[in-house]
Amino acid sequence: MTGLEVPGAHLGPFISLDEQPAELERTIESYAAVDCGALAVSVGDRAYFESADRIAEMAQKLESLAETAAGYDLDFLYHNHHWEFQPLSGTDTAIFDVQMAEIDDSVGVELDVGWVAAGGDDPVKRIESLGDRLEILHIKDVDIAEKRSVEVGEGDVDLASCVDAALATGVDWFVYEHDEPSDPLASLETGARFLLDLQ
């Protein structure tokens, strides 16, 4: 035994939502074999965010994936990017709010606080509003103006407040993430120190 746990993994991050069911069937036994706790998916095709009808279509597909994952005792989570925090066309309501109202509770959330901030929203308020629907928190610092991932402490996100809010809601897993580090190993060390200092 290694002592390592696998709280979650991303399902096919570079394939379309329509291709995800086949990807899930192809890989799900591997995730179950390592006792992975949850699978997360993001939606990069922005056509799904153009209208409430398209969001409803997306919700049905995510719920179907969640049902398959549940058959293997895996939670299924939605991972955000920055574009979900823009208003839905013709409304003042953030796309993310429309999503969360449309998608049933079979789909939890893996919230990326950096992308929330880059989208012009408040990650602490989002954490608090999600409550127990939030399962995993991605710790990412960003330069908001450039919508670019940076080393923790070098960006605009109040990560300590995000962690405090998530702990208050019962989140157990905090995942450090930097999308494009110049030195990946050094970035991992920086991220690990940051998380340890928050204990």
TrEMBL record:
Recorded GO MF terms: isomerase activity
Keyword match Isomerase: yes
Keywords assigned by UniProt, alphabetized: Isomerase
Source organism, top-level taxon: Archaea
Keyword Isomerase: yes
Residues of the Xylose isomerase-like TIM barrel domain: 22-196
Listed InterPro entries: IolE/XylAMocC-like, Xyl_isomerase-like_sf, Xyl_isomerase-like_TIM-brl
Pfam families given in the database record: AP_endonuc_2
PANTHER family attached to this UniProt entry: HYDROXYPYRUVATE ISOMERASE, INOSOSE DEHYDRATASE
Name this polypeptide is given: Sugar phosphate isomerase/epimerase family protein
Record organism: Halopelagius fulvigenes
